[in-house]
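I hope you will forgive my troubling you with a question about protein structure. The record follows directly beneath this note:
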Amino acid sequence: MAHEIPRSKVKLSKAGFFQKLQCKTRDNKMRNPDIQFTRLRWLLTFAGLFLYVADIYTDISLALMYFQEKQWVWTGLTILFVLAGLLVTQIFSCAWYWDDIKEDLLKPQEQISGISKGGLTLLHVLGVGIFIRYYHLLNKGSKVVWTTKKSHTLEESRDVHVHTHPSLFSLATDLSMLKLFEVFLESVPQLLLQLYIVQGRDEDSVMQYVSMAFSLSNTAWALVDYRRCLRRSLPHIKEMPPGIPTAVYLLYKLCTITSHILSYSLLLILNIYSIIALIILCLLGMIWTQLLQTNFCSSKYLELLYRAVTGVILTFTFFNVKGQDTKVPMIIYYSCHTFINNMALLLLAFLKPELQTDRFLLTVCGLIIVGSVLGLVSLVWYYVFLHPREKCSEADEVDGLGRETKATRRIRNFLQP
């Protein structure tokens, strides 16, 4: 679990802070030479872009199919989730660009092909802000990972290692945070909607299954990518080892989320008014986030939007909202999670016994049981045996927790796994 790290009372001058921060970063990277933006990381970023585009494309294609069939409700809801994810990511992306420009952390005229501040805003209004971020990261990263290292002098190589690689991971972390918003506002609700439609219709189509497959793949990618980027961007957090820890974490998240979505779909099939209970769960998540008084955004209104989005995310999975010890909240959350899953199965057995002969629904019930058990086992396995332990119990200005930039603060104060 993540713990909130107290700020030190030591005050440093701005010049002294950045000088010590540079030394701290250099020391961290020298001790951890593998923490760098590699060619594999660049290719994986491109893969994430592909999944993002494919997910939206299949959803829009599905909406067109419903429109041709004159299924107005399904058309509207499918498009609504696409627009919700798109709108929220554009709002936060634009706000973060403005924050970085204000603090001279980002100079658009130098780093993003001459795009001005007004041009960035216009591109976000047009809905392509996240593609600008992908272009920025891939373009800057390609100059580092696809150039011949022999052409660099010793000083240039040191500068790339100390400054450029951390900068690339900072860009990647911003992008991964936006992707996390997008999957829980678009991909996950879309998966729930399409499951409900497939289970409630006599006919289904290949496009529905393709859309669900890309939604699930996009979600899986976003969860693992965010966790790895976060742990590489914050110097006081240990790196997440690849291999078994990453696989177990992914298994934990995917199984718990998928089983929960399937349970929600069963409840909606049993009674469409179960949507009211789903809305109440979402509101409870928003209220809890409000009570925690998060401080993620620089604007009061953006903070309210962030808390609302967090409430939606908590409807499907658990995250550490404010960097505190979350052992008790996590136990309570997954106890309720298990109760809802079991309740969906029991209600199906007692209220709709005629549906128990449906092969598809029987498969769904089996997936709920297997997913719930496997997800909880993976959760315990990960946090007991595989979770990287933070050795740093306190931080000073060098760690960026005293006089910190808005970019550093948003990474540190965002949802923590």
Summary: Residues 253 and 375 are 7 Å apart (CA to CA). The chain has two domains: 13-240, 241-387.
